[in-house]
Write a structure and sequence with these properties.
Blueprint lengths: L4 H22 L25 H10 L10
Length: 71
């Protein structure tokens, strides 16, 4: 039996990502031990990792134009 490693790995990564997303969506985080439901976040953190500089850097590394300023 022969399996081409490139497509095999691509499919494994795609299916693993889908599985992890489903598991995370179905996990009742508020019922895990030592979790205070009032402190759970509903979105990304407000720290600098999601700021303008990292987003611009990622876009440039991907060969995309910088996002247009909205201010």
């Amino acid at each position: 039996m022969y399996a081409d490693p490139g497509p095999l790995i691509d499919q494994l990564i795609a299916h693993t990502a889908e599985l992890l997303n489903e598991v995370m969506a179905l996990t009742p985080v508020e019922r895990l031990p030592d979790v205070d439901p009032t402190t759970l976040q509903s979105g990304p953190p407000d720290d600098d990792i999601f700021g303008e500089w990292p987003r611009t850097s990622i876009r440039l590394q991907l060969g995309l134009p910088p996002a247009a300023r909205t201010d």
